[in-house]
Amino acid sequence: MSKKISRKDFIKTSTVAGVGLSVLPFNIVKGKDKSKVRLGFIGVGGRGRSHLAGALARDDISVRAICDINKENAAKAQKMVRDAGMDEPELYTRGETDFRRMLKRDDLDGVFIATPWLWHVPMAVAAMEAGVYTGLEVPIATTVDGCWELVEASERTGVPCMMLENVCYRRDVMAILNMVRKGMFGEMTHARCGYQHNLLPVLLDENGNFGPGTVGESEWRTYHHINRNGDLYPTHGIGPVAHWLDINKGNRFLKISSHATKAEGLHKRIVELGGINHPNASIEFKKGDVVTSTITTARDETIIVTHNTSSVRPYSLGFRCQGTKGLWQVDGNTIYLDGVSEKHDQWEPFEPYQEKYDHPLWKKYHDEAVGSGHGGMDFFVRNAFIEAIKRQVNTPMDVYDGAAWSVIGPLSEASIEQGGATVSFPDFTDGRWMKREPDFALESSEF
Amino acid sequence: MSKKISRKDFIKTSTVAGVGLSVLPFNIVKGKDKSKVRLGFIGVGGRGRSHLAGALARDDISVRAICDINKENAAKAQKMVRDAGMDEPELYTRGETDFRRMLKRDDLDGVFIATPWLWHVPMAVAAMEAGVYTGLEVPIATTVDGCWELVEASERTGVPCMMLENVCYRRDVMAILNMVRKGMFGEMTHARCGYQHNLLPVLLDENGNFGPGTVGESEWRTYHHINRNGDLYPTHGIGPVAHWLDINKGNRFLKISSHATKAEGLHKRIVELGGINHPNASIEFKKGDVVTSTITTARDETIIVTHNTSSVRPYSLGFRCQGTKGLWQVDGNTIYLDGVSEKHDQWEPFEPYQEKYDHPLWKKYHDEAVGSGHGGMDFFVRNAFIEAIKRQVNTPMDVYDGAAWSVIGPLSEASIEQGGATVSFPDFTDGRWMKREPDFALESSEF
Question: What ipTM is given for this predicted complex?
Answer without folding.
Answer: 0.93
